[in-house]
Sequence to fold (74 residues):
Amino acid sequence: KGDQSEPAIAAASILAKVWRDQLIIRLDQRYPGYHLASNKGYGSVKHRQALQDLGPTRQHRLSFAPCQVRTLFG
Fold:
């Protein structure tokens, strides 16, 4: 809620989102099978299917449940 009352927090929030979006685009180029440009790294159906088919990358959070299953049994 700080970004609504403090301009510096609002600016930092915008910068962080722009940085993250650019990172996701670069990761999509590096790992095209995960459809990161379209799902922004969230667990869409295509993203979860790619995790099953390809396994997690070094950038995936292994605490994300689909990664845990693949790591344990894949």
The mean pLDDT is 86. The helical segments are 2-5, 7-30, 36-39, 45-54, 65-73. The longest helix spans residues 7-30.
